[in-house]
Automatic annotation (TrEMBL):
Residues 16-121 form the Histidine kinase/HSP90-like ATPase domain. Coiled coil: none annotated. One of its GO terms (molecular function) is protein serine/threonine kinase activity. This is ATP-binding protein. Pfam families: HATPase_c_2. CDD domains: HATPase_RsbW-like. Signal peptide: none annotated.
């Protein structure tokens, strides 16, 4: 892995409509960089939805960076949670977000600090 270049960062209100904004932001940011956004958009959708549903605080943060091999996205909320993959039952309406992230991302993890919880994921970089 080479040096990561920051492609964009944004802060928005932590509410359901923000997830669509985050998807569009990733699309535009990666399009400008000539990178296919499909996998990153899916990951951001899942991480953003989890942050809205399970996080806390008024704001969400999104960070997008890339090197020659991967795109890294990070979603931060003001909570102190410990996001982890769980096994959803067939009748469950939710609970599959981190399973989807695991299936799409090369790596993902959680970082907590005094500002909240950040869930990050790296997906393979594909040219547009």
């Amino acid at each position: 892995m080479g040096a990561m270049v920051v492609l964009g960062a944004v802060t928005a209100d932590r509410r359901p409509s923000t997830v669509e904004f985050l998807r569009r932001y990733v699309d535009g940011t990666l399009d400008t960089a000539g990178v296919d956004a499909e996998d990153a958009r899916l990951v951001v959708s899942e991480l953003g939805t989890n942050a809205v549903t399970h996080g806390s605080g008024e704001l969400l943060g999104l960070y997008v960076a890339a090197d020659e091999d991967c795109v890294r996205v990070e979603v931060t909320d003001g909570g102190s949670g410990s996001p982890r993959e769980r096994r959803a039952e067939a009748e469950d309406e939710g609970g599959r977000g981190l399973m989807i992230v695991t299936a799409v991302a090369e790596h993902w993890g959680v970082r907590r600090d005094e500002h909240g919880t950040t869930v990050w994921a790296e997906v393979a970089r594909k040219p547009r």
